[in-house]
Prior knowledge:
Layout: E1 5-7, E2 10-12, E3 16-18, E4 40-42, E5 59-62, E6 65-68, H1 77-88, E7 94-99, H2 104-113, E8 121-125, E9 129-130, E10 136-137, H3 142-155, E11 160-163, H4 171-180, E12 185-188, E13 192-195, E14 197-198, E15 203-204, E16 210-214, H5 219-230, E17 237-240, H6 246-255, E18 259-262, H7 265-268, H8 272-286
Parallel strand pairs: 3-18, 4-7, 7-8, 8-11, 11-12, 12-17, 17-18
Antiparallel strand pairs: 1-2, 5-6, 6-16, 9-10, 13-16, 14-15
Amino acid sequence: xxxxxxxxxxxxxxxxxxxxxxxxxxxxxxxxxxxxxxxxxxxxxxxxxxxxxxxxxxxxxxxxxxxxxxxxxxxxxxxxxxxxxxxxxxxxxxxxxxxxxxxxxxxxxxxxxxxxxxxxxxxxxxxxxxxxxxxxxxxxxxxxxxxxxxxxxxxxxxxxxxxxxxxxxxxxxxxxxxxxxxxxxxxxxxxxxxxxxxxxxxxxxxxxxxxxxxxxxxxxxxxxxxxxxxxxxxxxxxxxxxxxxxxxxxxxxxxxxxxxxxxxxxxxxxxxxxxxxxxxxxxxxxxxxxxxxxxxxxxx
Length: 300
């Protein structure tokens, strides 16, 4: 039975990855999860310099998920390479580094530093506010997305995955822009913007006011967007958004995703990734599926 998938020439033993920002770099989770069992570990976002993140409170539970306004807190690329990437070398899993920045130059600096590292692919977080565009995210304007993708692609040694924001009118327009600019793959969806209000205090619950919503409530929206983009572009898609079970993951695969990432559920059940990978294998056995690629994009 073949569970391996190929994305831009990189072979993953199975299609299950971690969602960026929900798994750190696997250090804490390695106490619970055998990282060798995962198709890939996708790291938390890393920038060219340390970012303190947003003020607290910055996480809130909501129906069917959670809001977070962490603000991409990270130690900066130098510490990350010495600590996190070195840690991940010991495992037989692919490593995808999530990259963030406030300007195209910031991203390029990180991408260049990662050139000779053990990162197998780079996931570019275009939900970061573009300081030159008045804090509109790079991923919310097709021309800005095209520009940052093409410029990163010129310097990147590893294949690049553009992580698409769902906070747009037409996500297929963004997918096409990334593909046209040379992206090797897409990951989607990032969080939806939400707000929670404390009615007793008459205040926003999050210090940042808005936060990114993730969790099971997002899944039907995410599956729809993956299906739309799988029919709009030729490059592979890593699907995410509310995956809690193998059944959820299989929906994404059938909609056209080549791989999936488990995000918010890692906070509730740290074993979710391995349970999803096991569940996919059991589903394949039950249905006599020899090769996982048989079901990828089978729903038209």
